[in-house]
Write a structure and sequence with these properties.
The structure holds two protein chains of two kinds. By secondary structure, chain A is mainly alpha-helical. Chain A has helices spanning 9-15, 24-46, 69-89, 96-116, 123-149, 157-175, 178-202, 207-230, 234-237, 257-262, 266-284, 286-296, 298-303, 308-334, 346-356, 361-384, 390-405, and strands at 51-55, 64-68, 120-122, 246-247, 263-264. Chain B is mainly α. Chain B is 70% helix and 2% strand. Chain B contains 19 helices and two strands. Chain B has a two-stranded antiparallel ribbon with strand order 1-2. Classes of the chains: A mainly alpha, B mainly alpha. At the A-B interface, α7, α8, α15 and α17 of A face α11, α16 and α18 of B.
């Protein structure tokens, strides 16, 4: 808009091509309206007319938010339709993101009313579980943010998770210390990150190729050592202590949020603190500016004296630390022992969260929480014997990411130099 | 690398050198063959280290290494040579079995068992490898081989037990179904790439997991799930849809012949057909291809359909040749292994075939190694990954062995294009 400083407003509107009727907002509005209609009619007609209880305690007793399942499914469906129609009018552009989130929320609530009718859903447990599923995804996606914002594609998050999980189990058991385990998990992540960095930055190998191969390498080497060391002698090598849960006095007693956020293990806090820290650092520090410059236009950054390769090494290795810590989750928090291929594709969901979150820390956090919620919901519905197959809920992260990169609802864009090795000419 | 290739060899000296020294000189340079051989060698060396450090009995001998080094070294050598001898015996041939056959105490099936196993494991990898290779030549990175193979397994398998057709025709129909399934699963990222520019690496990774979840849902459904079983397994395919195999203990089936034919077909497609010309042009320089009047979008879409169809065919061959039933793990890791195979074969059809046979051999030998001396099959995964790491970074191999730059260096590392 500011390209011609002398142009008046009238002239500019003439110059600009008219926006097509089906602009981004109207397409989103149409989408929300459609899912609202599905919620109203499909969920509403399938739902039993029984009370759905969302309890605050972990079981069926105690205080709860109750609603008739059928009524709830229809009401929330209609709310989604209304929000979609508001977006379709094209008059609420300022509130677009808010309306979109509310529309999706209403759709999810309608779905929940249908599923929970005649049963109960423990809210605290659901939030706690969602956060637990999301935890490695947050850390993995943050590792991706660090590497990819500086221009190194990291498809090896899965491998870093596996090495982290393995290192945590092995050293955690040998040293009988959670903290030694956590540190060696980070070392494990850094080992894979270092291989990625050297091969991608020094030897200019295709970064996606390296990532995929390193995943297989990590899968093979952890599986090999697991079968050689841990399986025959689990007591000696594969019984790491679990990470303790700490309760912050006062804050931990707040209902719902307290037990989820303030009665948790160190990794939860690490992940939740790292998000704003990395966000702030990327935006406001010298390192952040340089990282973004190297990721978008390395030649320009090099011209003004930024060491492109050095910075990329640094960022990929930092990413390895973070992803390794994410790997520690699997052995020190979740299951308490290492198993072959125990991450089972979580690294790729983290990659999806990174892309869905548009390569930003807060976006990655939001995407990871959303994906974590769908996984927890899939688990819950499986236990509750729902007719909705949990496989389809588990597909959601992948399909959402495909929709996002295809630009069906607003294009996501990677850093310009992401994946392009820098060769000084 | 460019600077070293540009270094001038003294021209008059050339004629004085004997053929042998020239040959040796060229052998010890960074040509395709030497780098491949040294990559395999390096991977085996690292594998040997892993075998030793993961064996507590041998490790305990290293604790008094300074007083009696021979103990530790002999024990390590015994372990490593036993492991790699098994790898060879399980993959190519076991002299003892041949001896038994000649003496009349063994059967010819036992003598040819290892080769049969190697080819059995290699067969699906040829298809998935070709899928990745042809896409690569067109500038697309098809990581979706796994998902496409899974869908190929599903459709091939379902066609194998849901239809009742005469033998032969049934097999062809089932194979076609598999190929069509894979082609559909490849069409989606191809179309998205052509129409919206969505990067195929991202979409194919996501579709891999979508396919795996779809498979695990499908095999629990009525009509597909075997009612006689409580675990997640489908009905068995009809014998009319099975790929004909050699007599029982041998598992190698007609799929390997099909694999060779398809390799020849892909080689023709890439090198001789007009579509192949277009895809290579698009792969080298899309804007130039566009200027020359080719439709880049159409090529991308069609290329992903072909690549998906190949991977789907690989999945169908896996079901109709070896697996017989659909399970969660029916496709194993053939899609991702196909990726390694294509890289090792340098994205050339016949190279991919050879690479697939090498990987099949490692896998078959690994089985014997696991059964015989209890060294986990996962070692093979490590070896396979390491080989490709070294192949993909020829500069690394060159630096380790101080290789000369090859005169016709065609070993340029593939430069990434990013998301």
């Amino acid at each position: 808009m500011s390209r011609v400083s002398t142009a008046t407003v009238e002239e500019l509107t003439v110059v600009d091509a008219p926006e097509p009727f089906w602009n981004r907002e109207r397409r989103l509005g149409a989408g929300i309206t459609v899912i609202g209609l599905i919620a109203t009619f499909v969920f509403g007609s399938l739902a039993e007319s029984k009370t759905a209880r969302f309890t605050l305690s972990p079981d069926a007793s105690g205080a709860a938010i109750s609603i008739n399942g059928q009524v709830g499914a229809i009401v929330f469906g209609l709310i989604a339709v209304a929000l979609g129609v508001v977006m379709l009018t094209g008059k609420a552009r300022r509130w677009q993101t808010l309306l979109l989130s509310l529309g999706i929320l209403a759709f999810v609530l309608s779905f929940l009313c249908w599923q929970v009718a005649g049963k109960f859903l423990p809210l605290v447990d659901t939030l706690d579980g969602s956060l637990e599923y999301a935890l490695p995804l947050i850390l993995g996606a943050l590792a991706g943010v660090l590497g990819e914002r500086s221009g190194v594609v990291n498809v090896a998050i899965e491998g870093q998770f596996l090495m982290g999980a393995f290192g945590a189990a092995l050293v955690g058991t040998l040293a009988t210390s959670v903290w030694a385990g956590l540190i060696s998990a980070m070392v494990g992540g850094v080992i894979i990150a270092a291989m990625l960095a050297v091969l991608a930055i020094r030897f200019l190998v295709d970064q996606v190729v390296v990532g995929i191969v390193l995943n297989l390498f990590a899968l093979g080497i952890t599986g090999f050592l697991y079968e050689r060391l841990m399986q025959p002698n689990a007591l000696k090598y594969n019984q790491p202590p679990k990470m303790p849960e700490w309760k912050i006095p006062g804050l931990g007693d707040i209902p719902v949020i307290g037990p989820v956020l303030f009665h948790a293990n160190l990794l939860v806090w690490l992940a939740l603190i790292l998000v704003p820290v990395i966000h702030f650092a990327l935006k406001n520090t010298r390192w952040g500016l340089r990282t973004r410059a190297v990721g978008e236009h390395p030649t320009a950054a090099d011209t003004v004296g930024v060491r492109v390769r050095g910075l990329r090494y640094l960022n990929v290795l930092l990413g390895g630390l973070v992803a390794g810590a994410g790997g520690a989750f699997f052995t020190l928090v979740s299951t308490g022992a290492f198993n072959k291929n125990m991450t089972n594709g979580a690294g790729f969901i983290a990659l999806a969260a990174l892309i869905f979150g548009r390569w930003t820390p807060f976006g990655a956090l939001g995407a990871a929480l959303f994906f974590g919620f769908t996984q927890k919901l899939a688990y819950f519905l499986g236990v509750a014997g729902s007719p909705v197959p949990n496989q389809f809920l588990n597909m959601l992260p992948y399909i959402a990411t495909i929709i996002a990169v295809a630009g069906l609802v607003g294009r996501v864009r990677a850093p310009a130099a992401d994946g392009v090795p820098y060769v000084k000419s | 690398m460019t600077t070293e290739t540009a270094a001038k060899p003294a021209p008059p000296k050339h004629k004085e050198e004997s053929f042998l020294s020239l040959f040796l000189k060229n052998l010890w340079s960074a040509n395709t063959f030497t780098v491949t051989a040294l990559s395999i060698f390096l991977a085996l060396v690292i594998g040997a280290v892993l075998i030793v450090i993961s064996d507590s009995a041998v490790l305990s001998k290293f604790s008094y290494f300074t007083s009696r080094p021979s103990d530790a070294l002999n024990a390590s050598w015994d372990l490593i040579s036993a492991a790699y001898a098994d790898l060879f015996k399980g993959a190519i041939f076991d002299p003892a079995a041949f001896q038994a056959w000649f003496d009349g105490t063994g059967t010819w099936q036992a003598a040819f068992g290892p080769i049969s196993e190697t080819l059995t494991y290699a067969t699906p990898l040829v298809f998935t490898g070709l899928s990745v290779a042809i896409a690569f030549r067109g500038g697309l990175f098809n990581i979706g081989g796994q998902g496409q193979a899974v869908i190929g397994c599903v459709l091939g398998g379902v066609a194998g037990f849901a239809f009742s057709l005469p033998p032969g025709i049934h097999l062809i129909v089932a194979l076609l179904f598999g190929a069509i399934g894979g082609a559909l699963w490849g069409f989606v990222p191809g179309l998205l790439k052509a129409r919206t520019g969505a990067h195929e690496v991202i979409t194919t990774i996501m579709l891999n997991y979508t396919a795996a979840l779809l498979l695990s849902w499908l095999i629990e459904q009525k009509g597909i799930h075997d009612p006689a079983r409580s675990d997640a397994i489908s009905k068995a395919i009809h014998s009319s849809a099975e790929l004909p195999a050699l007599p029982s203990p041998l598992r190698v089936h007609l799929g390997i012949v099909l694999a060779v034919l398809v390799t020849a077909g892909v080689a023709w497609l890439i090198n001789r057909s007009s579509f192949g010309f277009e895809l290579r042009a698009v792969g080298v320089n899309p804007p130039a291809a566009k200027t020359a009047g080719m439709s880049v979008a159409k090529t991308y879409t069609l290329l992903m359909v072909v690549a998906g169809g190949l991977a789907g065919l690989g999945g169908a061959v896996q079901v109709l040749g070896t697996a017989d039933k659909l399970t969660d793990q029916v496709a194993g890791n053939i899609g991702f292994d196909g990726l390694l195979v294509a890289l090792l074969g340098r994205n050339k059809p016949w190279g991919t075939l050879l690479a697939a046979i090498l990987y099949g051999a490692l896998r078959a030998g690994g089985n014997l190694m696991q059964v015989d001396i209890g060294i986990s099959l996962e070692l093979v995964t490590v070896l396979q990954a390491l080989i490709v790491i070294f192949i993909a970074a020829p500069a690394l191999v060159k630096a380790i062995f101080h290789l000369r730059a090859a005169r016709s260096a065609r070993l340029g590392t593939s430069l990434a294009k990013g998301w």
